[in-house]
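Troubleshooting: if your tokenizer reports a length mismatch, compare your output against this known-good record of 504 residues.
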Amino acid sequence: MPLLSDDASPLPQDAQSILALAARSMFHLFSSVSQGMFLVDLSGRIVWVNEGYQRFLPELGLDHVDQFLGHMVEDVIPNTQMRRVLETGEAVLIDLLTNRAGTFVVSRIPLRGDDGRVIGAIGIVLFDHPETTLQPLISKFALLQRDLDDARRELAEQRGRQLRAGSGDGTRRARHTFASFVGSSPAAQEIKRQARRAAQSASPVLLLGETGTGKELLAHAIHAASSRAGGPFVSVNIAAVPDTLLEAEFFGVAPGAYTGADRKGREGKFKLADGGTLFLDEIGDMPQNLQAKLLRALQEGEIEPLGSNQLVPFDVRVLAATSRDLGALVRDGKFREDLYYRLHVLPLRVPPLRERRGDIPALVEVLGEDMALRNGTAPPELQPDALALLMGQPWRGNIRELRNVLEQAVMRSESPAIGAAQLTSILRETGVEPAAPLEPAPEAPGDAALLRPLAEQVAELEQRAIAAALAASGGNKLAAARRLRISRATLYGRLDPPARAAGD
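Known-good structure output:
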């Protein structure tokens, strides 16, 4: 059989026409085989959406396609990164997107005009429900991520040992990685996921949360995982520096700027952090007269040391943290609104300990090992009633308060074993009336069936849902796929072999 008939349309002879033909073919291919596609213009407004993507609209809280088309992409698709593609012109071929519609493997590709300028972007949903369809790949990635975190932690420890041994360069480095943020609860996993994403950006990060939640630790980890990891990490606690010295602390002092000033001058934190990260802790305590100067420095990328008329450029990524309500401070006129929006680009709320009580046993173990290493003693062994008591407390001081209670218990105990009675006494001495211990949730009769691999349970549920949809649709696979709001290709891929054979 000949490959081409006499009446077959020949390929164009010029390269431009061939490229246009290939572009149309690829567009139609992705539109037909992907789970969904949409286009945005240069402003980020959605101008086209295919039928496949429209099935996700109800999960996004949209009743009709008109609530999607013509709207800015950030307004209708939570957590989207399409804006970044439009601004940078860089494609994101593979990424995970999670929002209320679910978790998806997506691609984001810029569209360019004849002059090469970005004129829009295309978003493609490659896979939905990757937790099942891509489970082997996700598991492997998780292992690699843990190995990478361990390697970074070991590298950070080696750097710390070198500095303590007197390497002599005085370089400021991050002391923590994401592995240092202990916890496997949903709240802990989510904040680490957000922080890892923030580490890949160059935008300012604002860490919000109560005192003692680990904001400074996360700031170190973000720096260590960023492209600036090789540069310095410089931190300044604004609440700990007198107001009269803050300007010199930030911007430095020119030689002989005032009586008593160093004849050689003094570099400020911005210059010390050049090429790296500047962490502004307790930013909510910054005096108002300095807020305008900080804003100008962040906007212009240059500072003017005290007593100098010369502008000094710098290159830093700013991370800020506060335990105060910055929004309320803005409303009260105590914090500049323009500075607030300059810092509030990537806000991360660090959860308090009472929202991740399940992490307390792991935290107790890590804190105990750290105390044992520093004191040259055996790690404490908390009795079950002691752990239950700790997990029931509100922990207004969060991890810092937990560490303090454990340290007191270790110092007072004659043996490594620590019971609830000892902890109760310590809590009361610190002015805290102990809350009732956290009782373990009673095991329901059917809970044993749930203690199996999650992927296995999800697969079983999918098969039951598919069987029910096929039965309700009289065996019509297209109708069943529409009921389940998945593509027919996805349905075929998830059919059991017997079901597939019976229906074909």
